[in-house]
Specification:
With 128 residues, the protein is an alpha/beta fold. The chain is 45% helix and 19% strand. The chain has one domain: 3-Layer(aba) Sandwich (Rossmann fold), CATH 3.40.50. The protein has five helices and five strands, in the order βαβαβαβαβα. Strand 1, helix 1 and strand 2 form a beta-alpha-beta unit. The two termini are 16 Å apart.
């Protein structure tokens, strides 16, 4: 399984990397522009990604723009795309869904919530 994270926080990514260790190959981009360029250049093939986990609040291009742009690329319909954000705004949830996200999860604030993330992402993938 290949999981890609677009997450600008080093601390958040370090926690996510620990939680997802053993669940597959993990890649990370710290901003949307770099990730999108990698998809466009073929440095990362969207068809080979199982799951793309996107933070909404990124420097420069936000997560919503990234999702919409990635979905429009060749192979962009292949991965499960899930937003992982601290925003609970119904507007953000709606925008993410409209852009092509398959799921929307709140960033957990405790260890139990972090440990539940792999199962939650697997459930979102099953529903696709």
């Amino acid at each position: 399984m290949q999981i890609a994270f677009i997450e600008d926080s080093d601390e958040d990514f370090a926690l996510l990397a620990r939680v997802f260790k053993g669940h597959g190959t993990i890649r990370r981009w710290s901003d949307a522009e770099t990730a999108l360029q990698a998809f466009r250049d073929g440095d990362a093939d969207l068809r080979e990604l199982d799951t793309l986990v996107v933070d909404l609040h990124l420097p420069g291009m936000d997560g919503i723009e990234l999702i919409a742009s990635a979905r429009a690329l060749p192979g962009g319909d292949a991965p499960t795309v899930c937003v992982l954000s601290s925003s609970q705004s119904p507007v953000d949830v709606g925008r993410a869904t409209t852009a092509g996200a398959d799921g929307y999860l709140l960033k957990p604030d405790d260890v139990g919530g972090l440990r539940a993330l792999p199962a939650q992402l697997a459930e979102i993938s099953k529903r696709r």
